Amino acid sequence: MITAFVLVEAERTALANLGGQLQQIEAVAEVYSVTGVWDFVAVVRVDRHEQLAQALAENLAALEGVSRSQTMVAFDSFSDLDLDQFFAGGS
Known about the structure:
Layout: E1 2-10, H1 15-23, E2 28-33, E3 40-46, H2 49-60, E4 66-73, H3 83-87
Antiparallel strand pairs: 1-3, 1-4, 2-3
C-alpha cells in the first residue's frame, strides 16, 4: 500500500468547508486541520501510483479553494500499527 501525506493551503473563504471536501475524495483516508503554513494534512492511501496521481491531479487539485499543495510519499513506516490490517477491517 502506498501512503502519501498531502499538505494543503486553502483560500480563506474555503477554510470552513475544504476539510470535508478533502475527506470525500475516495483515496483520502484521513484529513487533519493543522496550524502553521499549511491548513490541512490529508493522508492518502492507494494500491498503485496511478491511483495517487489520479487522486491528486483529478480530484484534489480540482477542488475550489485549494491554493497550493505539497505531496510527500512515504517510503517506510515505523509504527507498531498494522495499517493494512486496520484498513482491511481487522484489529
